[in-house]
């Protein structure tokens, strides 16, 4: 079998790889990958559309969920072009500057998702531990302030890394481990390996994701303490059930991220195909599963989806009925 490789190694380019050693079956691998991207795109778009159009969902909890869906959409769109290029056309080349921009976007949206999960944990903490103050503190204005703070925080911490690396000399023509640009994979090909370039990424990972995860864990310790102090078992079950979706979202995001970071930084002998698989799981699993989890476990969203599909089916039936009447009149006129 002939593999069409559209690669011409250049000192100003990097070479992307999808699943090293499995080039012969890239076309077949692309089928489930494309299905996952489609599910991620449609699922998050639907969540966003429902929250925007349904006035009953204009509440802080659903504002943060819409932010999560928007971030997942952006993350999906950021990696989709290079993943499909590699899998479909074996087009591995990417310019170093384009690679750095993609890397900046991937990590910015990844850190942004971590911060949104913190905002959602704060929302659950307020709803369960301070229900009387919930409506007073978490107003629409406060939700906007939290969203802006989260975005500004990412720009402030991520921009210096991009500025430091954009003019950094790199060993061109090197083969990366993933079909997209990932910081630990790219930085090892830097000539100078400056202090900012080498350690800033690790600092961001430990500081941003580390503090976010600690804040989420601390929030759930306080939530558990409050729930366990409640006498009525039904109230305990109801309170915990509101946290199930968020706990699933946190697990789906942090477990692949930590696994990939360990594979790159601590276990240098990890096979490249495993690193590539972990990277694809890390980027695809949250956008695919988050809308599924929230649509299945959140009754309000499930009901809104049902109403939307019922409205579309009724509108389709009316259009078909009107079309049939119009055709009937046309036939009677012609006769």
Automatic annotation (TrEMBL):
Listed transmembrane segments:
25-51, 63-88, 100-122, 134-156, 206-227, 239-258, 278-296
Q: How does it sit in the membrane?
A: Multi-pass membrane protein
State the GO CC annotations.
plasma membrane
Q: Which GO terms describe its biological process?
A: cellular response to lipid
Q: Report the principal subcellular site.
A: membrane
Q: Could you say which protein family the record assigns here?
A: Belongs to the G-protein coupled receptor 1 family.
Q: What is this protein called?
A: Olfactory receptor
Enumerate the subcellular locations listed in this protein's record, separating them with semicolons: Cell membrane; Membrane
Q: Which domain of life is it from?
A: Eukaryota
Q: Which UniProt keywords apply?
A: Cell membrane, G-protein coupled receptor, Membrane, Olfaction, Receptor, Sensory transduction, Transducer, Transmembrane, Transmembrane helix
Looking at the record, the residues that make up the G-protein coupled receptors family 1 profile domain are 43-294
What are this entry's molecular-function GO terms?
A: G protein-coupled receptor activity; olfactory receptor activity
């Amino acid at each position: 079998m002939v593999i069409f490789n559209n690669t011409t190694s250049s000192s100003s380019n990097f070479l992307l790889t999808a699943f090293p050693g499995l080039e012969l079956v890239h076309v077949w691998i692309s089928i489930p990958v494309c299905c996952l991207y489609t599910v991620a795109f449609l699922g998050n778009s639907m969540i966003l559309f429902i929250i925007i159009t349904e006035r009953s969902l204009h509440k802080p909890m659903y504002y943060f969920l819409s932010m999560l869906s928007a971030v997942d959409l952006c993350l999906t769109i950021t990696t989709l072009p290079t993943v499909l290029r590699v899998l479909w056309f074996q087009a591995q080349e990417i310019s170093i500057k384009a690679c750095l921009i993609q890397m900046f976007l991937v990590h910015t949206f990844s850190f942004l998702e971590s911060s949104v999960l913190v905002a959602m944990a704060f929302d659950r903490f307020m709803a369960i531990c301070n229900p009387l103050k919930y409506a007073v503190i978490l107003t629409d204005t406060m939700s906007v302030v939290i969203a802006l703070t989260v975005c500004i925080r990412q720009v402030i911490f991520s921009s210096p890394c991009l500025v430091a690396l954009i003019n950094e000399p790199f060993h061109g023509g090197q083969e990366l481990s993933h079909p997209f640009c990932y910081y630990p994979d790219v930085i090892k090909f830097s000539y100078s390996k400056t202090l900012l370039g080498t350690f800033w990424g690790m600092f961001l990972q430990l500081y941003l994701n580390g503090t976010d995860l600690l804040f989420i864990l601390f929030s759930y310790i306080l939530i558990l303490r409050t729930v366990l102090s409640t006498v009525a078992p039904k109230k305990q079950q109801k309170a915990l059930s509101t946290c199930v979706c968020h706990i699933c979202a946190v697990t789906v995001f942090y477990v692949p991220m930590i696994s990939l970071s360990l594979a790159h930084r601590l276990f240098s002998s990890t096979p490249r195909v495993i690193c590539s698989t972990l990277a694809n799981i890390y980027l695809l699993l949250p956008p695919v599963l988050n809308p599924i989890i929230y649509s299945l476990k959140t009754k309000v969203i499930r009901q809104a989806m049902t109403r939307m599909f019922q409205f579309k089916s009724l509108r389709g039936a009316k259009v078909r009925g009107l079309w049939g009447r119009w055709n009937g009149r046309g036939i009677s006129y012609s006769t």
